[in-house]
Design goal:
Shape: flat
Oligomer: single chain
Strand content: 5-15%
Number of strands: 10
């Protein structure tokens, strides 16, 4: 094989340099071919060592002792796009008599197309010798061209996708770098940059920092907010001021906290929900309607229908019996709830409560004034559902069509022209919009750039609950995103950091219907060549869900095989804690058969084998989790003996001195990991005390541990809301140490990182 050329290139090269080509690959490898022919192909073959180069790849076809023609393609999309222009400019019409896309039935062109997946051009001319000379010069000059890094800014959508991936893993360093890249692009105005700052804090879980910044929220509330920013702001306020009272079940405290700390200071946030369907935002709008002078039962009923089934009793507990939808007075003549008086609708509009004004006006017969107001409301609300409902109501009342002013006619026509024609925007139990419509459009050839912008901007308005609770719909969604190609597949892959939180929300039980989706997500990452840090966090969530669902032997073996493929690409000291957490998750979960048990053992041994490559970097804190896992897997201690550090690392010794006589508290619902972390920390630092708590609710023991521990580690990926608020209060303003994962290695590393 040519030095530096990958063995994987051999199959297609043997096909290209094979019959009917008189230049044979075996002769090229052995340098047995004529010197002039070797000189003609070697410069181009050496290009294959740089797969990222956009330079052309041009190879000859020899017949009857001379060149019968050449085939050209490129490794990159950019190179493919300018290939034809490059050849025309370099040769000109005086040299070329033939330049066109090669016939798909041509075996030489097909070999090249199979390798690169790009268009292959065929060309020839009356003087093959001169063309050969010109090609040799082109290869020489192109080889001397300096490599130029990417200088143009990346698409905003691509950077925002990377940002969401970084936020999913709470990778603050990467997130800040991506924010800086967006700032430096010069394509975002000051308002958009402020929205990004809110997204950054929300993605990093800095809810208190958002909620306590009164003047920032006050200023932003007066701006036309994107749905995601509105969702982040209300989510922060609800989490900080309302959640704790809700967890305690105190209805009066919930309403008082919401009214005094959220509704009164920031009424402009409730001008419109803009279609946002996130849980806390919907609850906030329910509470906001319930504190109105005359709460509208129809509005309350519509909002409550957006909450998941597990919140079915929430309204009974927190909005008060007098405000329940079923307490509405029924108009027997009309057969439905009595609508609010028009003056209340007018007051809502004048107060800037556009959602409320829209619902109240829409419930009454239309007339010129109400139609004009409703059009203004729809423009502010900005959702397809609001637009469709108004058009449907207008079409159902022909009496209002007569003698409309031309301005209103034009506004209605403009609204109708913007309405979707191919499918409904409504969400129902059988045809949910949002995520499903997005996946169907991607599969049908929707422009990838538009699809990426849509998922980034509109996801807060999409409700994944109907899909999560329906096996058939979730399977369809999984099949759609798992069988995309080209640009659409890239969009789906980059959108995993948005799909996972929607279908596998933190702190909520997984549903069996999402099992096909979990399998597809794992496969998409396994098939991708590049695996980012954010992908590892996605994999942790997906693996936990799959193990919770329960896997058959075949499913288990396939899952571990996919993990092995990923492990081969991420094997490094930097990712060792993640790899060990995966080994632990497999070890403490049941394996369905001996074959499955062998598969997980093979994965652990792979991690151990790869660790030998950076054994010189391992400290005692790295070795102890490996030793515990070796016991789980029944691996002989001699197999890991080479990984044991000869001496205790200096930084471990220093950390031990700093922890002397101190207490380390650990909170995790993964009790096995907590027990292992305790054992490892006690062995690492014998002079410190280690206590682990796994209470799901606030208890005196959890409160006391959080209050008295010198270092308190909180496994946020394995926790309950009640425990979080309990710990937060007990720490009295101090911050807990958040563990990156929920395995032993992550818990131990969190302690060391906190001290260092």
């Amino acid at each position: 094989m040519i030095a530096g050329l990958s063995e994987t290139e051999r199959p297609w090269l043997e096909r290209f340099f094979g019959a009917p080509n008189e230049l044979i690959w075996a002769d090229i490898e052995k340098s047995a071919a004529p010197a002039d022919r070797l000189d003609a192909v070697l410069p181009w073959l050496l290009r294959l060592k740089d797969g990222a180069s956009d330079a052309p790849i041009i190879l000859p076809l020899y017949r009857n002792g001379t060149v019968a023609g050449w085939y050209a393609t490129a490794s990159t999309k950019e190179g493919e796009q300018r290939l034809r222009a490059t050849l025309r400019a370099w040769f000109g019409p005086s040299y070329l008599s033939h330049l066109q896309v090669a016939d798909s039935a041509n075996p030489s062109a097909e070999a090249m197309r199979t390798r690169f997946g790009k268009q292959v051009l065929a060309f020839k001319g009356p003087d093959s010798y001169k063309i050969g000379e010109r090609l040799a010069l082109l290869a020489k000059l192109d080889g001397q061209r300096p490599h130029l890094g990417r200088t143009e800014p990346r698409p905003v959508g691509r950077v925002r996708s990377d940002l969401e991936r970084a936020l999913l893993s709470r990778d603050e360093v990467s997130a800040l770098a991506l924010i800086a890249e967006l700032r430096g692009s010069g394509r975002l105005n000051e308002e958009n940059l402020r929205f990004l700052d809110i997204r950054l804090m929300a993605g990093l879980g800095q809810w208190e920092q958002i909620a306590r910044d009164y003047w920032t929220i006050k200023t932003l509330a007066d701006l036309p907010l994107p749905p995601q920013t509105l969702s982040d702001l209300i989510e922060a306020l609800y989490r900080i001021y309302v959640d704790e009272a809700e967890v305690a079940g105190d209805a009066r405290a919930v309403r008082l906290a919401f009214e005094e700390r959220v509704a009164k200071p920031f009424p402009r946030l409730f001008a419109s929900r803009h279609g946002v369907r996130t849980r806390r935002v919907v609850k906030a709008f329910v509470l906001y309607e319930s504190i109105q002078t005359k709460p509208d039962p129809t509005i309350l009923e519509g909002l409550l229908s957006l909450l998941p089934t597990e919140d079915a009793t929430w309204a009974d507990a927190f909005i008060g019996a007098s405000n329940k939808p079923e307490s509405a007075v029924v108009d027997k003549a009309q057969g439905g709830p009595v609508a609010q008086l028009p003056d209340e609708a007018e007051a809502a509009f004048e107060d800037g409560q556009y959602d409320r004004a829209y619902e109240l006006y829409l419930a009454k017969p239309l007339h010129r004034k109400s139609l004009s107001v409703l059009l203004s409301c729809v423009q502010f609300i900005g959702t397809a559902e609001a637009r469709r409902r108004l058009l449907d109501t207008f079409d159902a009342q022909p009496s209002v069509h007569e003698d409309l002013p031309s301005a209103l006619v034009l506004r209605l026509q403009s609204l109708r022209d913007g309405a979707p024609s191919e499918e409904s925007e409504t969400e129902g139990p059988l045809e949910p919009a949002g995520w499903m419509r997005w996946a169907r459009r991607l599969a049908a050839g929707y422009p990838p750039e538009t699809a990426e912008a849509e998922v980034l901007n509109d996801r807060a308005m999409w409700n994944a609950v109907p899909l999560r609770s329906n096996v058939q719909l979730c399977r369809e969604f999984s099949n759609l995103i798992g069988n995309l190609s080209d640009g659409a597949a890239d969009v789906a892959r980059r959108s995993l950091s948005l799909i996972v939180p929607a279908f596998f929300p933190e702190g909520e039980p997984t549903t069996q219907s999402t099992k096909p989706l979990a399998t597809v997500i794992l496969l998409l990452i396994a098939m991708d060549e590049a695996v980012a840090r954010g992908d590892l966090e996605i994999l942790s969530t997906i693996l936990a869900a799959l193990l919770e669902f329960g896997l058959s032997t075949q499913e288990y073996v396939t899952t571990v095989a996919d993990l092995e493929a990923i492990q081969d690409r991420v094997a490094s000291y930097a990712n060792l804690a993640w790899s060990l957490d995966v080994c632990e998750a497999l070890a403490i979960s049941p394996a369905p058969s001996s074959e499955a048990n062998e598969a997980r053992l093979r994965f652990f041994l792979k991690v151990v084998s790869q660790s030998h490559g950076f054994a010189h970097r391992l400290g005692t804190h790295d070795f102890l989790p490996i030793k515990l896992l070796a016991r789980d897997y029944g691996v002989d201690p001699s197999a890991i003996a080479d990984l044991r550090p000869a001496l205790k690392a200096a930084d471990d010794a220093e950390t031990g001195e700093m922890l002397a006589a101190k207490t380390i508290g650990i909170y995790t619902l993964t009790e096995a990991a907590g027990a292992r972390a305790k054992s490892a920390l006690r062995e690492l630092f014998p002079s410190c005390a280690v206590e682990v708590n796994s209470d799901t609710v606030c208890t005196s023991s959890l409160t006391n541990l959080a209050r008295t521990a010198d270092i308190f580690v909180f496994a946020w990926r394995s926790s309950s809301h009640q425990a979080f608020f309990c710990v937060k209060d007990a720490l009295g303003g101090r911050d807990p140490i958040y563990a990156a994962g929920k395995g032993t290695a992550s818990l131990v590393n969190a302690v060391r990182d906190a001290i260092r």
